[in-house]
Amino acid sequence: MKTILKSLLRLEGLIAVIAYAVTCGLLLADVFAREFLSQSIWGAQKIAVFGAIVAGILGLTIAVGNNAHLRANFADKILPWLWVDRVGDLVSGLLFMGLCYYAIIFVGESIEFEDKAEVIGIPLWPIQLVFPYAFGTAAFRHLTFFLIPGVKPEHAGEG
């Protein structure tokens, strides 16, 4: 299970890096085109925003996978650490399952209503798929950490 989680983390990291690189490349190219060619690149800013959204939401799954997300520690002194951590993973897993459910509904409605991105006119739902994916993967990880605490990485700090 640890190998699967690490492989998933590497893949998500790779996709996030590519998304940020595309975002950066498009914005730099657009600024260059505007400043030196007096013409912007059509749709570059909108696509760059989508790249930043994909990379940003994958940051959630990367943080969960590295155990580097923000964590409420108010109960650490009241309850034994092991149980606080495990109950936190259970609650977080259930919360992310709920978010995944509503994200699937959201994407389904986007498909049904044929929502398109302004300016470039592409369907929004393929980009929106990152939300149910990220929430579902975060739920999977938290529930795995709850059921098999040995696969959870050491707390890496916040951020």
Shape: elongated
Low-pLDDT regions: none
Q: Secondary-structure element sequence?
A: HHHHH
CA distance, first residue to last residue? 25 Å
CA gyration radius, whole angstroms: 19 Å
Biggest sheet overview = none
Q: How many domain modules?
A: 1
* Mean pLDDT score: 92
State the share of residues found in helices, binned by percent: over 70%
Structural class: mainly alpha
Strand content: under 5%
Say how many strands there are.
0
* DSSP helical segment count: 5
List keywords for this structure.
mainly alpha
Descriptive account of the structure:
It is a single chain. The chain has five helices and no strands. It is an all-alpha fold and 159 residues long. The protein has one domain. Helix 3 packs antiparallel against helix 5. The longest helix has 35 residues, at 2-36. It is elongated, with a radius of gyration of 19 Å. The mean pLDDT is 92.
Short description:
This protein is mostly helical and 159 residues long. The longest helix has 35 residues. It starts with a helix and ends in a 12-residue tail after the last helix.
List the helices and strands and how they pair.
Blueprint: H1 2-36, H2 44-66, H3 81-112, H4 125-128, H5 130-147
